[in-house]
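One chain is below:
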Amino acid sequence: MYQSPARSLCSALSNLCCAPSSATSSTLLLRSPAPVKRALSPPAILASSAAVTAAPHYGCSAAVSSGAANSQAVYSMGNSTSRLYSALAKTLSTGAVSKHQEYLEQTDPDFLDPIDPKDLLEECQMVLQKRPARFQRDFVNLRTSFSRSHRPIRVMQWNILAQALGEGKDNFIQCPMEALRWEERKCLILEEILAYQPDILCLQEVDHYFDTFQPLLSRLGYQCTFFPKPWSPCLDVECNNGPDGCALFFLKDRFTLVNSTNIRLTAMKLKTNQVAIAQILKCNETGKLFCTAVTHLKARNGWERFRSAQGADLLENLKRITREAEVPLIVCGDFNAEPTEEVYKEFSNSSLNLNSAYKLLSADGLSEPPYTTWKIRPSGECRHTLDYIWYSQHALNVNAALSLLTEEQIGPNRLPSFTYPSDHLSLVCDFTFNEDPDRLL
């Protein structure tokens, strides 16, 4: 059942336009982010936008279930920034993927104007004006002396927490349900992405791809690919928004797609519910080829051998795609595995000569961070390192990595929260090509 809770956009628009006045910060647009000050008033463009029109609205009502979507959404029209608000506002009320054809046709990136990240950020900050400001995270320079011949490639890895799972299955007992409302949590996710402006974005647990991430990120200049799980647990949740899966986005002005492969992972020669996307890209600045992959392995204790088999299958696929490491590789994912697990060792010892980028933040360069996810469930508190960015260490250099949130910033109720939208932290690294890649093979 592909459905999600309904919400009137008339009410949302009214709430935004009646907010008290204050200045809006745009510091998130810097490559090195600064703390956010929430906007307390809508941008001038919203106040000056007079023309509105009605659009179809989908939700969990009986009318929608019977195929008669009678509720109406109001959104602004006018110049490109007004149309940006229209695109963002329409995603506040999401509906069935199977019922989105009209919406998707309207948001075809070939027929919509591009949007400025600053404008989208301001719209997000308006929605989030009652939430605490996002926490400061700094980039740690990992190479003290080097010369580079091209702009770094920024890669972001993030399990964003599927909305259906956050509200219906994951049972974060210390997180108020109000903090999980999609209308605001979506804007926290977008704000995090806009803060770091990745050139390549790898996401897991994406269940709002068609109504939120594809229409908005495509207008920010990203080429978008989505591969859902065959039997997504989201579909067991009432009023879900369709299956969750992996999504890969890259900036079209920086890279050209050479080849894209969707991989359904196998274990013990059986197809599983876990997937991966692998794409060979050409860097437009250097002409160099490299491969980026995103995956999400099986969760839960007791499935260690299963994850190991999935990892081995993924590595075999990547060896074929990269021609045995002839093409440099970056693999992002929620592996659901601590560094002590066999699947981690498989990637560490692979013939692809991979290294984990976040190990470089440790004092000895050999230890993973103490956590990438931290939550409280009925079974107790869970703090684990499960998320990684692997890279071809013979062909790529890690110039910088984003520091993690501290325990104090995360707070006693852990994640997710009113401040942070997911139970997993985002990982962000800047890469450059090694000028002598064969030397370390």
